[in-house]
Amino acid sequence: MPSARRPPARNDELLAASERAFAARGYFGTSTAQVAAAMGVSQPYVIRTFGSKRELFLRTHAHAGAAIVSAFRAAASSSEGAFDPKHVGAAYRALVLSQPASVLVWAHAFSAATAEPAIGLESRRMFDEVYRALRDAGASALEMWDFMGRGMLMNTLLLMEAPRYADEYDFAPIVDLVFGPPFSSARTAVADGHRPE
Predict the structure, then answer these.
(1) pLDDT for 17-40, tens place per residue?
(2) Looking at residue 104, which CATH number applies to its domain?
(3) What is the C-alpha to C-alpha distance for residues 21 and 118, in angstroms, rounded to an integer?
(4) pLDDT given at position 79
(5) H or E element at residue 118
(6) How far apart are the C-alpha atoms of 160 and 165, rounded to whole Å?
(7) Interval 140-185: pLDDT, tens
(8) Of all helices (H) and strands (E), which one includes residue 167?
(9) Which pLDDT belongs to residue 61?
(10) Which residues contact 2 (CB under 8 A, 6 or more apart)?
């Protein structure tokens, strides 16, 4: 779990920049110098503020996961008491299109979990938060299996940059189905981290 170091005044802004840096290369492929550059600060500032690369990733992952849980809880609270997978799924899709870095950081933690026990602990904690948000929204175990399976497919497509390269492969129709109407601006927007107009 992240340490209790005092966060800087612009914590959300720094962690959003950290999300973008880690989203591009994952935990193992990203240096603190790259994160510092994305934040617009020095590497010593990053270490002084966050402690270590692992601690920075843990804080970044918690920040990204909070956005996901918040999207699920907001969508569930407007569903009038019953779990509505289409409504909650639309909220996740909107998050993916508007904040793909958050989703990518969340997914990158799964691949780092076996090599870094602290990241494994954090990824399980956050997965449990997502599970509880869906359970509290009224989802049954079977509905969660279906819903989360679809979400993991979306995460996998993002991780392999499928929206950017879909036209080169036979799987383009599944990318269009998962991310929305088949128009190239949606693919470019997801790949570039922007929401389509």
Answers:
(1) 999 999 999 999 999 999 999 999
(2) 1.10.357.10
(3) 20
(4) 64
(5) helix 117-136
(6) 9
(7) 999 999 999 999 999 999 999 998 899 899 999 999 888 876 434 4
(8) none
(9) 97
(10) 55, 58, 59, 62, 122
Q: Is residue 191 part of a domain?
A: no
Residues sharing a CB contact under 8 Å with residue 68, sequence separation 6 or more, in sequence order: 92, 95, 102, 103, 106, 126, 130
Q: Are 66 and 19 in contact (CB under 8 A)?
A: no
Q: What is the count of structural domains for the chain? A: 1
Answer whether residue 136 is part of any domain. yes
| C-beta of residue 188 within 8 angstroms of C-beta of residue 91 | no
Does the residue 194 lie in any domain?
Answer: no
Looking at the domain assignment, is residue 118 inside a domain? yes
Distance of CA 185 to the CA centre of its chain: 21
How far apart are alpha carbons 123 and 135 in whole angstroms? 18
- Cα dihedral across residues 90, 95, 101, 106: positive or negative: negative
Containing domain of residue 47, as a range? 11-159
Model pTM? Answer: 0.83
